[in-house]
Amino acid sequence: MRKIDFKVRGFSLIEIMVVVIILGLMLGVVVPALISKIRDGEVARIKSDFSNIKTALRTYEMDNYSMPTTEQGLDALASKTDIAPLPRKWPKRGYLERLPKDPWERPYIYILDGDDFQLYSLGRDGQEGGAGPDKDFFYRDIF
């Protein structure tokens, strides 16, 4: 008859603790780097959106001798507005195919300020003001 050996060796508590500590240290390095890359992606998307909106605003201005009013808003770039002053020219496809939203799926805020405009996103928290990850993004600060 064969003898069955029931001695099965497992991991000691110290070995398990060493593995947990190593994993914790790795996560401590990886997670902040990942969060930083996500933030970089959000900023890149905002820059791209601001650039596209600015181009559409300037084209609208060249065609109609003024930018959309604050009341008309950015909607006037994607669909023909019925709010005065009505655009003199309107391309078949508009100036933007669709209005972009910020990385948190909220609309960008547009204000016509005399001959210039303000364009911004309220950031991650959706509230005015804020710092760090909740900071607002203004066109004038990015370009």
From TrEMBL:
Record's keyword terms, sorted? Cell inner membrane, Cell membrane, Membrane, Methylation, Transmembrane, Transmembrane helix
Membrane topology of the entry: Single-pass membrane protein
Q: Which residues form the Type II secretion system protein GspG C-terminal domain?
A: 34-136
Q: Which InterPro entries match?
A: Bac_GSPG_pilin, N_methyl_site, Pilin-like, T2SS_protein-GspG_C, Type2_sec_GspG
Q: Name one GO biological process term.
A: protein secretion by the type II secretion system
**Where is the chain membrane-spanning?**
12-35
Q: Which GO terms describe its cellular component?
A: plasma membrane; type II protein secretion system complex
PANTHER family, per the entry: GENERAL SECRETION PATHWAY PROTEIN G (PTHR30093), TYPE II SECRETION SYSTEM CORE PROTEIN G (PTHR30093:SF44)
Question: NCBIfam families attached here?
Answer: IV_pilin_GFxxxE, typeII_sec_gspG
Membership in a protein family: Belongs to the GSP G family.
Under which name does UniProt file this protein?
Type II secretion system core protein G
